[in-house]
């Protein structure tokens, strides 16, 4: 199983960074790497609240969410596959390795990000998005990874799952789920 936040598959973190740096910059605030590391992999509403509070944006989290979502929605279809991803995913799929995506993105956002890459994402037997989690149960909680493992037929044992993850919150969640983690 390869549950993964989008950057392992798609180069979306660059888009997130540019959008949040732009919005913060409009208010004279800075979106730093340290802040980005705190919000990577979290559900959008939770991330927006952390950003607003951390940098003192004069916006409510919902306002930041609306504006960032508008900008991200415009840019996501341009997301490119990361180098080597297509080859690896098709190889694993051809050899019967079950594959999953477990993402902090909503279902709608994931569809927007992947609309140019449907063929690759057709290899995924399981997709779990933040929409399917109870509030407060996004990464770094293990819930999304455990949910993905449970959806395989038969369900995958967490200790036999390998998670490719780039976000510190995702690494923590996968470890908390009892899974092996490759930090990208």
Proportion of residues in β-strands: 5-15%
Rg from Cα: 16 Å
Q: Detail the poorly predicted runs.
A: 1-7
CATH fold category name of the largest domain: Rossmann fold
- What general outline do the C-alpha atoms trace? globular
CATH architecture of the largest domain: 3-Layer(aba) Sandwich
Task: Please report the number of helical segments.
Answer: 10
Largest sheet composition:
2 strands, parallel
Which class do the helix and strand fractions yield? mainly alpha
> How many domain units?
2
Approximate helicity band: 40-55%
Pfam families: Hydrolase
Protein name: Pseudouridine 5'-phosphatase
GO molecular function, one term: phosphatase activity
Write up this protein.
By secondary structure, the protein is mostly helical. The protein has two domains: 6-10 and 80-183, Rossmann fold; 13-77, DNA polymerase, domain 1, CATH 1.10.150. Helices cover 50% and strands 8% of the residues. The chain is built from ten helices and four strands. The chain has helices spanning 6-9, 13-26, 33-39, 44-55, 61-75, 85-94, 107-114, 118-121, 143-151, 168-176; strands at residues 100-102, 126-128, 162-165, 180-183. Strands 1-2 form a two-stranded parallel ribbon. The protein has a two-stranded parallel ribbon with strand order 3-4. β3 (162-165), α10 (168-176) and β4 (180-183) form a beta-alpha-beta unit. α4 (44-55) crosses α5 (61-75). The longest helix is centred in the middle third of the chain and has 15 residues, at 61-75. It is globular. It starts with 5 loop residues before the first helix and ends with a strand. Mean pLDDT is 89; it is low at 1-7. Pfam families: Hydrolase (PF00702). InterPro entries: HAD-like_sf, HAD-SF_hydro_IA, HAD_sf, PGP-like_dom2.
């Amino acid at each position: 199983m390869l549950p993964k936040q989008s950057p392992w598959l798609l180069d979306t973190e660059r888009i997130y960074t540019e959008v949040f740096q732009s919005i913060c910059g409009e208010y004279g605030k800075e979106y730093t790497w340290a802040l980005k590391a705190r919000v990577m992999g979290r559900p959008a509403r939770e991330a927006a609240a952390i950003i607003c509070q951390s940098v003192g944006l004069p916006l409510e989290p919902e306002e930041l969410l609306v504006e960032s979502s508008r900008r991200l929605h415009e840019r996501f279809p341009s997301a490119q596959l990361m180098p080597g991803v297509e080859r690896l995913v098709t190889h694993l799929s051809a050899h019967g390795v079950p594959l999953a995506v477990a993402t902090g993105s909503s279902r709608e956002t994931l569809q927007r990000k992947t609309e140019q890459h449907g063929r690759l994402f057709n290899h995924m037997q399981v997709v779990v998005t933040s929409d399917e989690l109870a509030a407060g149960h996004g990464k770094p909680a293990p819930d999304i990874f455990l949910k993905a493992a449970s959806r395989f037929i038969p369900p995958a044992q967490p200790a036999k799952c390998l998670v490719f993850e780039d976000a510190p919150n995702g690494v923590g969640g996968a470890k908390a789920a009892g899974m092996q983690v490759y930090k990208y």
